[in-house]
Amino acid sequence: MSLYYEDQKPEAKARSGAFLRERIPKFLGYFERVLRQNPKGPNHLVGDALTYVDLSLFQVIEGLTYAFPKAMVNRKAEYPALLALHDAVAKRPNIARYLASPRRLAFNEEGIFRHYPELDSAA
User: Is the pTM for the entire model greater than 0.90?
Assistant: First the structure.
């Protein structure tokens, strides 16, 4: 855990494979089920108004799509409610303006979501 990526590429490749096969389906599947079971409708994770949870899930989907674009293209069909929530958040007027503005910080190789093409798998 204390090594740089460059010092542990084989281990990173093995771990990212497990992440794509196990963790993404486990957690995104959970949120998909919660969205579908919301008695107020599948537009929000909790209740019937936008919350920090919805914003956080938006950012998780954005980040995973940046970090693992091939894997997420293949996975998105498995989570229609979660992706509908993501798209609804992105279309909110103030959020859409922010996303299109120069104030938005782009994903990069310094943040929590990093893209290393050799770790992304369409499987």
Answer: no
